[in-house]
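Hi everyone,

Forwarding the result from last night's run.
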Amino acid sequence: MMKLIEPYILTFIPIFVAVDAIGNIPLFVSMVEGVNRKQRQRIISKSVTTATVLAVIFMFAGKWVLRAIGITIPDFQIAGGILLFVISVRLLLPGSSKYVLAGRHEKDVGVFPLGTPLITGPAVLTTTLMMLDAHGISATFVSLVINMLIVWLTLINANYIMNLMGQAGTRAFSKIMYILLASIGVMMVRRGMLGGFLG
């Protein structure tokens, strides 16, 4: 039984870390301040739909694009791992932010910056492709969908979570996620080097 669910656990955790659902809450709350309940629901639906569609398209087309331009999986693992590590380090530095702020009342705020790059950014795209190669399409797709469901639940309950954890709590949680993301980046580089030079 454990052998059956192991790929799902191994794909869920890195994608969960990359998505950082809890860490996204403070900006989301600030961007929808003053927006009525119906508009807020529409923004949440649009952002999660955009993030999911973008990640799924990249999951299915990413390998084909890489193959078309002559990039091997070890090449992508090394480059992707370095990218994840750099993103993580930048996010851990004081005063840094992964958020590209836009006018919070813009009609497409659910698409940009919430859908991308807030929910599905470079880290999620890179991690998804790596998990696809390591654990297969079924585990990666299921883990991705579950993570997007978690994002939807956290955004729906954003105010409650903020009151429960506080801004400092959500920030601390994000920092832990970024450290884990940096570790995943190092692991990807190690696997890419082993696959490229020893494979």
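The chain is about 80% helix and 0% strand.

Cheers,
N.
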